[in-house]
Amino acid sequence: MIRPKITQRERSDPPRRHDTDAARAWSLILSAARLARNASWSLDHPLALRADPDGRVSPVDPAHRSQADLLWLPHAGWRPGNRAGDHAEDCHREDPARALFDLYLPLCRPHPGSVEVIAHLGQSIDGYIATANGDARFVTGEANIRHLHRMRALSDAVLVGAETVAADDPRLTTRLVLGPNAVRVVLDPRRRLSPERHLFNDGASATLLCCDRARIKPGEQHHGQAELIGLPAVSDGLDLGALLGTLAERGLLRIFVEGGGTTVSRFLQAGRLSRLQIAVAPLVIGSGRPGVRLPPTERLADALRPATRIFRMGEDVLYDFELGAGVPEPSADAIPQNTINEDTVTQAVLSRAELSRIR
Ligand SMILES: NC(=O)c1ccc[n+]([C@@H]2O[C@H](COP(=O)([O-])OP(=O)(O)OC[C@H]3O[C@@H](n4cnc5c(N)ncnc54)[C@H](OP(=O)(O)O)[C@@H]3O)[C@@H](O)[C@H]2O)c1
C-alpha cells in the first residue's frame, strides 16, 4: 500500500494561531445559532460566552466582558466580545475569527417564529453556474465550498431543485465542518428523479421530496427513504408559500436554497428571499447554465440594487445581498420572558463528542 508522503514540516507544524482562532469562532457561532433556536432563552438579558482553546463553549458572567469572546446584547444582538478583539492589531482581512463573526452572526439572530430563506449561487464572472451540459464541479474554490457547508450547518433545511440532483447527485451534508446536517429538501414537481439518488438513500439526514400532489398515489409516503410531500401547483411551479408553510409546521424555519439558478430565481422572483449570496469566481465559462434570471427590466432604476456586504473567499468574492423578506424584527410580545439560566446555555453549546469530530 502506498502511503501519502508526510513531510517533516507537516509533522512538526503546530496549529497556526489563525486556525485555532477560526475554529473557536466557529464553535461560538454554532452555539449562537442553537441558542437562537431555543424558545426558552430570554433575549432581554445580556449573555456572554467564551471558547476554550479546544473550542468548548461556556457561559461567563456578562459583567466581566473582557473575558468574553461573544456577547448577546438585548438591543444590539450578537457582538464579538472584548477577548475576541485581543488581536485588534490584525488587519480585518487577516483576522479569520472576526471575518467569520461578521459573515455568520447576522444569520444567528433569534426568530419570533417566521421563516427565513437564504439562497446562494457560485458563478463565473460572466454569470454562469455550470457548463451547458451541467458540469459545475467546481465553479468556486475551496473556501466557498467550506462556506456552503457552514451555511448548511446553520440552517434547518437545505433545498435544491431537481436539475441539481440530476446533474450532481449531491449529499448536501456538513462533512467539511463541525455542525449538524440540515434536513434536505428537493423540489421535483414531476418526480423525475430516480429513488436511487444519494439523497434518497444515504440516511445521512432526513430528506423531503416535494412534488405536485397529483403525482402521489393514494397511500404512497416515500421515495427511496425520502418522505414525499405533495404541494399545490401554481402557474410557475409549486406553490412556494405552501412549501414554506409546510416546512415551518415541521419547525424548519431557516431554509438555505443552494441552487441551481432556476430554483434560486423562482424564490427571488416570488419575493421569498431574505438574503441572496452570490460568490463570483475568476473564471469565464462563456456560455452555460445561468445564475439568476428574472423577467426583463426596462429601466435600470427599477433593477434590484440591494444593500450588500462583500467577503473575500480565497480567489472568489462573495456578495451577500440583504433582501429582507420574511425577517420581522423581534417584537417585545414575541420575546419569551423566561429568565436565562445556565442550563439553557449549556444545552446549546457543543458537546465534547461533537467537538472531537473536527479533530
Ligand atoms: N454553481 C452553483 O452554485 C450551483 C449550485 C447548484 C447547482 N449547480 C448546477 O446548476 C445546474 C442546475 O441548475 P438549474 O438552474 O438548471 O436547475 P435547478 O434549479 O437545480 O432545478 C430546476 C428544476 O427544479 C424544479 N423546481 C425548482 N423550483 C421549482 C418551483 N418553484 N416549482 C416547481 N419546480 C421547481 C423544476 O423541475 P422540473 O424541470 O421537473 O419542473 C426545475 O426545472 C446543474 O448543472 C448543477 O450542477 C450549480
Please describe what this structure looks like.
It is a single chain. The chain is of the alpha/beta class and 359 residues long. The chain has two domains: 17-94, no CATH class; 116-295 and 304-322, Dihydrofolate Reductase, subunit A. It contains nine helices and 18 strands. A hairpin with a 2-residue loop joins strand 12 and strand 13 (237-238). The chain starts with 7 loop residues before the first helix and ends with a helix. The relative contact order is 0.17. Bound molecules: NADP nicotinamide-adenine-dinucleotide phosphate (NAP). NADP nicotinamide-adenine-dinucleotide phosphate is lined by residues 121-122, 129-130, 134, 136, 139, 160-164, 167-168, 187, 189-190, 192, 237-238, 240, 258-263, 266, 289.
